[in-house]
Model the fold of this input.
Amino acid sequence: MDKIEISAGEFAERRKRAADGAAARGLKGLLVCSRGGGTLDRFGDVYYLTNYYTSFPYIPDLRGAWNARAHAFVVLSADGECLLVTDAPNDGRTMLPEARVIYTDHVLDGVLKALQRLGMASGEIGLVGADVLPLKTYRTLEERLPGATWPDAQEVLAKLRAIKSPDEIALLRRASAVGSRAIEAMMEAAVPGASHGDVVAAGMAVLAPAGAALYNSFMASGRGGENPVAVRRNFPTWGADEALEDGQWFRIGLSGVVDGYYFDLSRSKAIGPPTNRQIELFEAAVEIIEAGIDAVRPGGTAAEVAAAGLGKQQALGYPNDGVFSGLGHGVGLGWDVPWLATGDDTVLEPGMVLCLERTIRKDGYLGDFEETVVVTEDGCEKITDARIRWW
Done:
C-alpha cells in the first residue's frame, strides 16, 4: 500500500485551532493527557496534536524514581505555544521540534515545569483526557498549583477530531481495507473443529504484516432453538475453549488500529450449512444497518440515523436488548463523536467517519453486522469492503 503521512503543517494547524478553542472559552490553555503503554485506550488526543504515542506500560508511581508513567501530556497555551511531556523517547515521527519535547521518568514534574514555562501555573486551564488522568496525579497538580483550576475542555478536541481531513480519511480508508481483509481471513477460518483462538490467529496473520494492532475481537458462537447455547469469554474475548461445531451460528466484532487510525466491523456466518432461521437473523442485521446508512446525509443528525436503523429493527420484530443501545459512533483515533443514539442531535457534516453496528438476538440465535462510512457532500460512501454474506 502507498505510504500515507499527515504533514507537519496539518499538525501545526490542529494545535492552532485547539489553542483558539481554548482562548474562545477564556482559558489560559489546555493540558491534554493521553495514555498508551501498549494499550489502545485513549491515546488519540496527544497523537492528534503531535503524532506521538508513549509505548511504556503503566506502573504505579514510586517516590523519587518515577511518576505518571504510560502517560503523555501536551501543554498548549491559548497563544499557541506547545510542549510535549513524555516518558518514552521520540521515535522520529513526532511532529514537534525536539526542543519542544520534554523526555523524563518524572512525567508529572515535567508537566509542572512545562506549565510554569508557558505561564500556565495559575488561572483556568482546560483539561482534556481527564478520564485517563490518574486521581493521584490530578490531586498532585491541585496541590502543587493552588492558583490553577481545571475545567473540563474535552469538547475542544472532540469537535476538531470529529471532522477528518482528506489525509485522515485516506488513513481510515486504508485501515478499513486492512480490517476487511483480516475479518475475511477469520471468517474463512471459522470451520468445524476450529477454536475462537484459531480464528483470531488467522486474522493476526493479516494484521501483523500490515503493521496493524488488534484492539479487540468480540467473538461468540452458539445454537438457537429450544435449548439455546452461547459460547463466549470476556478475557480474552477469543479465549473460549470449545471448538466450533456444525449447526452453530458464529459472529466476530473486530477492531484494530493502523498508523493510529481505527477500523471496526463485524460479520456473522453459520458453521456448516446455514439454516433458514440463522439466515433470517443474519439478513435482519444487514437490513438494519443498511437502513441506517440510507439515513446518513449532511445536515441530518446522529439521532435521526439511529432512529432509522433502530426503527427498522423494531419493524422486523427484534427487541433492542443488546449490550449497546445505539446504532454506532464516529471513528478516527479512537471512538469519536458523534454517537448514533437517541438524544445525540449532532448535525452530520462532510468529513465525519461513522461506524454503524448492530447485534440482534432472538430465541438463542444471533445476527451481527457493522460497516464504516464517510459523510460526503451528498450522502455517504462506504469504506469497509469485506464480504457481507457468508450464507
Notes: The mean pLDDT is 96. The radius of gyration is 23 Å. The domain at 163-382 is CATH 3.90.230.10 (Creatine Amidinohydrolase). The longest strand covers residues 212-223.
